[in-house]
Amino acid sequence: MTLTDRCDSVPMDKNENYEKKETSMGDTLREVVWQAQEQGRLTCGVNDCAQLLEVDPYNVMLCVLPEAAASGSEVSLHIHHMLIEAFCREYDIRLVKVDSLSKMSDIVKGRTPSTDNCVKVTRSSAADTSCLIVQYPSDGTSEEDEVLAEYYKNVIFSDSSQTCVISLPD
């Protein structure tokens, strides 16, 4: 089951100005990542994300990648991102690109996880926030999950590039 299947009942005016909503989508994405982090559903790092995609792709709700690689980044990281993107498209996993790797890193590192959960952000992978995987929650999606899913669906069906890029808040 995909996130769109779970969220078809969320009303959204098809004529809304998505450029105006993009800033709020950045806030929504940040909240989705924070919720996943608190609930132990967030996986960080290219290698850990690739391993999760290989083992359990049908439990992945969302994959987040930077739109452009950071300057001076390794070629191998770019190749990993391309392979993860292709895998997500093959398995109909929601793939969201963000405008800044540093903002994405700040979001993950900006909220410290509580000690009573099992966040999958290990010391080794916390340094690598170039790829994020958010798994489906076991107790149902949140309002932010549903808003992001509906936004994604509307952008993908209205854009010929088939790419959803979200500007993250500063």
From TrEMBL:
Annotated region described as Disordered, given as residue ranges: 1-22
Domain spans labelled Ribosomal protein eL8/eL30/eS12/Gadd45: 28-122
Signal peptide annotation: none
Family classification: Belongs to the GADD45 family.
Official protein name in the record: Growth arrest and DNA damage-inducible protein GADD45 gamma
